[in-house]
Hints:
The complex is a heterodimer of chains A (93) and B (548).
Chain A: E1 3-7, H1 16-27, E2 33-37, E3 43-44, H2 48-53, E4 61-66, H3 71-82
Chain B: E1 3-6, E2 8-11, E3 14-21, H1 37-61, H2 65-78, H3 81-92, H4 97-115, H5 117-120, H6 123-138, E4 152-156, H7 161-164, E5 172-177, H8 185-192, E6 197-199, E7 212-216, E8 221-224, H9 228-247, E9 262-266, E10 279-284, H10 298-311, E11 316-320, H11 350-353, H12 355-370, E12 375-380, H13 386-398, E13 403-408, H14 411-415, H15 417-423, E14 426-429, H16 431-438, H17 457-473, E15 477-480, H18 487-495, E16 500-503, H19 508-516, H20 520-532, H21 536-545
Parallel strand pairs in B: 3-4, 4-5, 5-6, 9-10, 9-16, 10-11, 11-12, 12-13, 13-14, 14-15, 15-16
Antiparallel strand pairs in B: 1-8, 2-6, 3-7, 7-8
Amino acid sequence: MPEKTVTIASRSGLHARPAKIFVQAAAKQGVPVRLRVGDKPSVPATSMLGVLALGAEQGTAVTLQAEGPGAEEALDALAELLARDLDAEDPNA
Amino acid sequence: MADVVRGLGVSPGRAAGQAHRMARPPVLPPRGTVTDPAREIGLAVAALAAVAGHLEQHAAKAAGADARAILEAQSLMAADPALRESVEEAVGAGLTAAHAVDAACAHHREALLAAGGYFADRAGDLDDIRNRAVAAVLGLPMPGVPDPGHPYILIADDLAPADTAGLDTGTVLALVTEKGGPTSHTAILARTFGMPAIVACPGAAGIGDGTWITVDGASGEVAIGVGEDTAAAVQSEARAARESRSAGRGPGRTADGHPVPLLLNIGSARDLGTGDAEGVGLFRTEFLFLGRGDAPSFDEQVAAYTAVLQALPGRRVVIRTLDAGSDKPLPFLGLPEEANPALGVRGLRTARNRPEVLDTQLDAIAEAARASDAETWVMAPMVSTVAEAAGFARRARARGLRHVGVMVEVPAAALHARRLLAEVDFLSIGTNDLGQYAFAADRQHGELADLLDPWQPGLLGLIAMCGEAGREAGKPVGVCGEAAADPLLATVLVGLGVGSLSMAAPSVPGVREALGRHSMQECREHARLALAAGDPAEARAAMTGAGH
């Protein structure tokens, strides 16, 4: 299954606003995407509770996985989000 | 004729208005049998969807990007497909809708708690979702702060910080709780906003929503079912009292003119308000450090300190160095988890492992001080020995900082106040922690609230030792803590030798007024009576006898 590993850049980790932005973006992808930390069980990227329970802080490496048509594009789009410091961006922009 | 019920008045003032109750969390009904699983799932899913919608609406109205993000994230939790799956599983296992919501939330709660840190803090958001969704399934009123659309008096079992985060202090006229004590969150909140409040009033349980009541926060009396005339009279009296208080201006002083600077407790320049403050008695610098993976840079810190110092030219600004610990964890400090955080590596003690964090902070404070006309004071939190005070003073003075002090939060520091003042220029008493450590009572422990009452004569005795040491040394001793915001207790503190009081901005007018009504001689008499009292209730009662 295609995977992509990326380091969380947001200051507050995958929490609060960054988590919200990520979960909403995951829901817009054409394919189901899952997310995991290390070799722990993965969670659906559209699950706010699952994403929070990963406990991914700034600097944590997380792995995105998806399968099927459009999987690569979905992985690229979501990986790009996680690699940005979403806390530093203007919330009103 | 109105019925009168009594409680403990914890924040003086009178108010009249309609009572509205904060609904309690719903109680689960006995477990029933599921006859139609699809119906139970439908009920539970509809309730969760309603909660998600409600939270989304609140998010849209929220002031500030942070508050909005938290509510939006919470709304996404309620709408989480994983939560829905857990509900379906629970119904499959034989639970009715309300129990299925409860079980599903409990399942995900565990996972959040296991993630630790600020992820675990979100468990409270999930509890809120659970309470709201269970109430929706059962057709009970939505728990949380009511929103009747007009000013009202809030009645509650008790209030927790989470309950009051969204409280509109412009709409709530007064607070009445069935439980709670003089240092409960309700009392603190009410005093901070100068709002009349009564706690420990079991009779409030019988007050129906929409009933007209009057509240007297000094005597602790609630009159239920008052007539229009009475209500109107109390309202106009309350308005006049508010206006007279807010008309009070100028520096704090006793009736006979002894100056007692009334300073502000702030977390950033935003808390300074209208800017007529006499100064800042406690500038908490934690906000710069919280929730980040690395320490803020020197430049970033200089900018934040400068913003405060430049707003107060010629006035005193007491900056407290980083007060963190495993109870307020900062990832970059790399502090290990501790069994007993309140007694662990916190405050100045964090400089044992990471001295460079304190050094950078002192460098930044010194740099900001050089570039402003404010009188910059700096102090360290959680100092317990003379050697710690001396070490901190050396580091601060080496950077050119001229007013160096320490906080007195540990009984050992109060006992050695005289020796501390041989090393530093001032003391600032943090009464909340000093109470916690002197009485071995956790600040968060609701059942021990009586031990944490700032009127405890034992606590006042420790404050008296500091005041005495300050008088002897001719050096300032201030109080920055809950105690300073209590107008009557402020007179006691001044009588004990405390020279300045620091509090949240809304508390200043009440304290200014109370001091202005008492001479220094009367303050000393208050102090003598409070120290001699057997317990906090007796101490408060003695003030009334003293002609307060």
